[in-house]
Amino acid sequence: MSDMPTPMNKPTNKPTNEPTNEPMNQTRRSPLRRLGCIIALIFWFALLLVPCLLLVMATQGQIAVSQGSLPGQQIRVWLIMEADERGFGVSSTSAQQTDPNTACLQTNTRFLLWVGDADSLSYCDCYAREDAESAWQTTSTELGVCEPQ
Prior knowledge:
The protein is 20% helix and 38% strand. By secondary structure, it is an alpha+beta fold. The longest helix is centred in the N-terminal third of the chain and has 30 residues, at 31-60. The model has no long low-confidence stretch (mean pLDDT 84).
């Protein structure tokens, strides 16, 4: 017979399930490295959203996120474009409810100006209503921090 390979004795390159003495080339990433990648990815997406936020700010003048049912209870960022002041205003609120029909809203306002100067300020609006279905009515507004009642 000749030494020509035949289909019966042709060598194949199919993997076998037999154990080998070669070390496996598996690289395991540490959990800290994976966490770092996740944090970097979140930071990257946040950075990509900045132009969208600036576009909304330029067209609407403000971004407001409601925090509750009281009037003005929201986080608000707005664009300041005055002749002597330019920048952003940022206000945040915290509610202090003494009973279901009486509440005070502490508003803290800060300014991030690149032209002009403005001081941060805080004021307290207190509200009351007849019952849970009624609208809130302003009872007082004071400059400064809300005093517990």
